[in-house]
């Protein structure tokens, strides 16, 4: 343990002892004694069940700043990083949840600092030019021909370009560290890859899932605190928070860099706890917290398809949208009558050839598109449309403000069956999983060796 001298010249250990003595003086004489516990496999520290705490301690209420091996993390750093996470949230965040979020962000900033310091210690420091290049690429992706708008946007949400650049530096530094210290020592044999390819061919036609995951590690000591953080993240995601943004900020898996995207996986490739949950999910659905060995996961089902089969979401559709609008100030009775007339017209259609002539008779508008990809439809409509036969329509949808409409399927070109994954793609998948596990252990060792002072 490292000791710090305080202003009076005593060590922090002496100061803690005096504080404990002061607390003891305030404990009533009749207070029950703590039960002496014997260390066991489940309780390695021999902690008593009835712990007496000296003074009021609430780690979530502690001032969220720290010094990591001499590098200062300020309250401003935390505020700006929190703003990056919460910018996509459509609902206000409760004060209690915001406090938990700040504590989690502090942990992330500590890990990020350790990653940057590890790269610097091994003479793999990320240059300012490399960070700036990546930053400009992100700006171009999000703001097109006006990348300078990135700076304005970050400042408008309470963050800063420096905060995002620091995150970029942390991700690039970690990639450098893993490239030297982890990746060269991960080996996958040809036999392992061929075995996976064989199982894939045997599983042709079964379901596979494209999942996003946010993973937070937990131990028996911090399990409850981590679980609270996971629940807080889920609440924000349910209120409109960006899964990709939260994964980049909070996930401890190496897939955090790509927003938690696990790619296409089969249930047999997942931990049993995740597999049993994913099996019942629909695209666009979020689920968690899911306790797995070593921590908790939140999973998001991005898409679903069948192994080595054509992905229906890649189908090109020929659709006609038939819609009616309502005049301003229309009464409820008039609107209901208009919808009833429209519904009767739709039921009477015998196919796509009837649409234009009949629509003009009742004042409906028709828009055709013969090159729309199924994946580009809203999730609520995609599965309905993909189950239609040629000439059939969706149920009516919409409202008075935006109009009532239906989609009619007039053609569908399915993609060819997906080819078997390549030898290299399977090898990359296995390597990624092993790199992820070793990276978690490497970061844990960095934490254990760190010199961290909380303020």
In CATH's first tier, which class of the domain at 312-413 applies? Alpha Beta
N-to-C order of helices and strands: HEEHHHHHHEHHEHEEEHHEHEEHE
**Structural class per helix/strand content?**
alpha+beta
Q: Strand content of the residues, in percent?
A: 15-25%
The number of strands is 11
What composes the largest sheet? 4 strands, antiparallel
Rounded to an integer in angstroms, the radius of gyration calculated over CA atoms is: 28 Å
**Residues in helix, %:** 40-55%
**End-to-end Cα distance:** 17 Å
How would you write the strand order of the largest sheet? 4-3-6-5
Characterize the quaternary organization of these chains: single chain
**What is the CATH fold-level name of the domain at 312-413?**
Chitinase A, domain 3
List low-confidence stretches.
1-35, 56-63
What is the number of helices? Answer: 14
Instruction: Indicate the CATH architecture of the domain at 312-413.
Output: Roll
Domain PpiC: 206-303
GO molecular function: peptidyl-prolyl cis-trans isomerase activity
Signal peptide: 1-33
Organism: Erythrobacter fulvus
């Amino acid at each position: 343990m490292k000791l710090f001298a305080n202003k009076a010249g005593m060590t922090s250990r002496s100061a803690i002892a005096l504080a404990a003595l002061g607390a003891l003086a305030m404990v009533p004489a009749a207070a029950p004694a703590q039960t002496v516990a014997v260390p066991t496999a489940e309780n390695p520290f021999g902690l008593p069940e009835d712990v007496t705490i000296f003074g009021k301690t609430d780690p979530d209420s502690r001032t969220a700043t720290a010094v990591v091996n001499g590098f200062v993390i300020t309250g401003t750093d935390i505020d700006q990083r929190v703003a990056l996470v919460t910018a996509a949230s459509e609902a206000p965040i409760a004060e209690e949840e915001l406090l938990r979020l700040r504590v989690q962000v502090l942990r992330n900033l500590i890990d990020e600092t350790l990653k940057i310091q590890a790269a610097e210690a091994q003479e793999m420091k990320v240059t300012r030019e490399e960070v700036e290049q990546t930053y400009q690429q992100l700006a171009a992706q999000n703001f097109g021909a006006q990348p300078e708008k990135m700076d304005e946007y970050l400042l408008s949400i309470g963050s800063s370009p420096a905060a995002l650049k620091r995150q970029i530096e942390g991700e690039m530094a970690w990639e450098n560290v893993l490239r030297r210290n982890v990746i060269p020592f991960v080996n996958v044999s040809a036999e392992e890859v061929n075995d996976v390819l064989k199982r894939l061919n045997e599983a042709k036609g079964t379901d596979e899932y494209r999942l996003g995951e946010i993973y937070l590690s937990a131990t028996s000591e911090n399990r409850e605190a981590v679980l609270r953080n996971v629940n807080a993240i889920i609440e924000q995601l349910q209120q409109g928070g960006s899964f990709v943004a939260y994964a980049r900020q909070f996930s401890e898996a190496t897939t955090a860099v790509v927003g938690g995207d696990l790619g296409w996986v089969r249930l047999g490739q997942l931990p049993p706890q995740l597999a049993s949950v994913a099996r019942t999910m629909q695209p666009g659905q979020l689920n968690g917290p899911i306790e797995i060995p070593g921590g908790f996961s939140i999973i998001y089902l991005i898409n679903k398809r069948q192994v080595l089969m054509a992905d229906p979401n890649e189908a090109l559709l020929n659709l006609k949208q038939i819609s009616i609008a309502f005049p301003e100030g229309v009464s409820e009775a008039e609107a209901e009558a208009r919808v009833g007339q429209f519904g009767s017209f739709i039921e009477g259609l015998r196919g796509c050839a009837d649409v234009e002539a009949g629509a003009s008779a009742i004042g409906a508008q028709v828009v055709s598109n013969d090159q729309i990809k199924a994946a580009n439809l809203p999730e609520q409509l995609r599965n309905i449309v993909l189950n239609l036969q040629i000439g059939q329509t969706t149920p009516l949808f919409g409202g008075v403000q935006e109009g009532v409409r239906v989609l009619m399927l007039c053609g569908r070109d399915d993609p060819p069956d997906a080819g078997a994954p390549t030898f290299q793609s399977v090898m990359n998948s296995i390597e990624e999983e092993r790199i992820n596990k070793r990276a978690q252990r490497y970061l844990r060792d960095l934490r254990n060796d760190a010199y961290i002072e909380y303020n």
